[in-house]
Amino acid sequence: MAMNGATLLQRKPAERSTTSRQLRVKCMAGESRQSPSTPPEKVSTKFKDVFAFSGPAPETINGRLAMLGFVSAVGVEIASGRDLFSQLATGGVPLFLGSAILLSVASVIPMFKGVSKESKSQEIMSSGAEMLNGRFAMLGLVALALTEYLKGGPLIS
């Protein structure tokens, strides 16, 4: 017996079919789509916690240095035609050490102040994107060095 919705509503409760289906509707018109602002979680500023294996400093600093190193190595290789190893042999080590120290200190200072990367994360420039880009840059830098070593010269010439 097929019934439409109007006849079910017009009947008395005793006349309704025993095989009724329930439908729940939730109105979200008044609710905000953004989560309510929660206070930022307390971040440890102890040296041991910041530099722990699973702490925020190691992968953040290594990722940022890898991004800088990969872009610098490829840029100098395009501009001068020298491979990564000749770049390091002709004065690249002091530049690398200087930029590594500067970038490491600039990355660690906010961590010791209790500021997390997630608290400064935006929709496009997110902390997850930075972490992923850093990981790819680490792989890219190792792949560039290995390829140039096996090839015996610059990858881009």
Largest sheet: none
* Radius of gyration, CA atoms, in whole angstroms: 29 Å
Tell me, briefly, the overall form: elongated
Roughly what percent helix?
A: 55-70%
* Topology pattern, helix = H, strand = E: HHHHH
Question: What structural category characterises the helix and strand content?
Answer: mainly alpha
| Separation, N- and C-terminal Cα atoms | 79 Å
Give the total of beta strands.
0
Unreliable stretches covering 5 or more consecutive residues: none
Average the pLDDT over all residues and give the rounded result.
79
Helix run count:
5
Strand content: under 5%
Structure description:
It is a single chain. By secondary structure, the chain is mostly helical. 57% of the residues lie in helices and 0% in strands. It has five helices and no strands. It has helices spanning 5-10, 47-50, 56-80, 84-112, 127-151. Helix 3 crosses helix 5 (127-151). The longest helix is centred in the middle third of the chain and has 29 residues, at 84-112. It is elongated. The chain starts with a helix and ends in a 6-residue tail after the last helix. The relative contact order is 0.13. The model has no long low-confidence stretch (mean pLDDT 79).
List keywords for this structure.
single chain; 157 residues; 5 helices
